[in-house]
Amino acid sequence: MKALIAAGGHATRLRPITYTTNKHLIPLANKPMIFNAIEKIVEVGVREIYININPGEQEIQRYVGDGARWGVHITYVEQTGGPKGLAHIIKNAEGFLRGEPFLFYLGDNIILGSLRRFVEQFQTEQLDCMLAFAHVSDPQRFGVPVIENGKLVRIEEKPSNPQTDLAQAGIYIYSDSIFTAVNAIEPSARGEFEISDANTYLIAKGYKVGWQEITGWWKDTGKPEDLLEGNQLIMDELHFADGTKDAMIGPKVRIQGRVKIGKGTVVWDNVLIRGPVVIGENSSIRESYIGPYTAIGNHCTVENTEIEHSIIMDNAQLNAGTRIVDSIVGKNARITSTKETLPLGHKLVVGDNSQVEV
Questions:
Q1: Which residues contact 257 (CB under 8 A, 6 or more apart)?
Q2: Range of the domain at 266
Q3: Residue 180 above 90 pLDDT?
């Protein structure tokens, strides 16, 4: 079995972060999001992975490489013709995937547990299509199954009045039959080749389509609050052994709960860290409180700041003199106190699509 990871798109709902960082490289618990997808795929024995990327993409290749760190081979496939929907991604990669079943994974989805049971059902029942569904609070954002008398009859894409709170969970397994489907469907009213229409085609034409509900958590990280929740969910699963042995910890530092601090990081002078917390390498934390579900990247400086339930990316500098919560701070960003300069007041340089509370 091969695998195809969708890692294109422009993630407009996550701007301004995604103006300069590919969404799939945004760190969750200090690990690029796409690494979680790769690890889940590798766990079920896949050794040949194709990653769909935007034309001209270079950043993902630099971070992910050729797959050697996971013992797999990774090939990058540019999505020609522009963003035309998930079914178009499969259509675009047909030349690479023909001849073997493949797992199609949306690279911005986070799932708890293994994909093994989905793969095993696909193989045991000799299916043409295996779908994963999850309960969500906003099914109108997703492909929603229509199930009648226990039988899956179709998938409705972003219905205004969904019949259930189940949604397609961004994990699909296909045989070669999917290429018949993606080449047969027409673009939807919004001009995209919908994966829901391809799946409905397979159902309508009598192909063997199976499905399972995800029993743990699943998260589509399409919005800032989703990123923070995904970060929290991943951190809940982390277990740290000797999590502070590579850091320099001062005598007045208090560490409570599960905490991981990277090599070369200095934590000094009246600091309280209450886990789960992940701090990267070569950072500096002083006179601060770092609260639960906070991930701080590499080469960061945090002084005179309380921070909780937030993602702080590499090279950020925080000296806020106040409390920061539920926040995402991008690479090389700087947050300082209004008391540091005159005249007093909030001085802002706010780019397009930013969100600020003062």
A1: 274, 275, 276, 277, 292
A2: 239-340
A3: yes
14 shares its domain with 82: yes
| pTM: predicted TM-score of the whole model, two decimal places | 0.82
SS3 string, 80-125, reads CCCCCCHHHHHHHCHHHHCCCCEEEEECCEEECCCCHHHHHHHHHC
Write out the two tokens for 202.
């397979």
Contact 104, 175 (CB under 8 A): no
Mean pLDDT of 144-163: 85
Say whether pLDDT at 173 is over 90.
yes
Give the residue from 203, 236, 269 where a domain finishes: 236
Question: Within 10 Å of residue 124's Cβ, how many Cβ atoms?
Answer: 9
Indicate whether 158 and 268 sit together in one domain.
no
Q: Are 226 and 305 part of one and the same domain?
A: no
**Beta carbons within 10 angstroms of residue 186's beta carbon:** 7
Together in a domain, 97 and 86: yes
Tally the domains of the chain.
Answer: 2
Q: What is the DSSP letter of 158?
A: S
Tell whether 356 is covered by a domain: no
Residue 347 pLDDT class (50, 70, 90 cuts):
low
Averaged over 230-235, what is the pLDDT? Answer: 86
Q: What are phi and psi of 329, to 5 degrees?
A: -115, 120
**CATH number of the domain bearing residue 88:** 3.90.550.10
At 259-281, the pLDDT tens digits run: 999 999 999 989 999 989 999 99
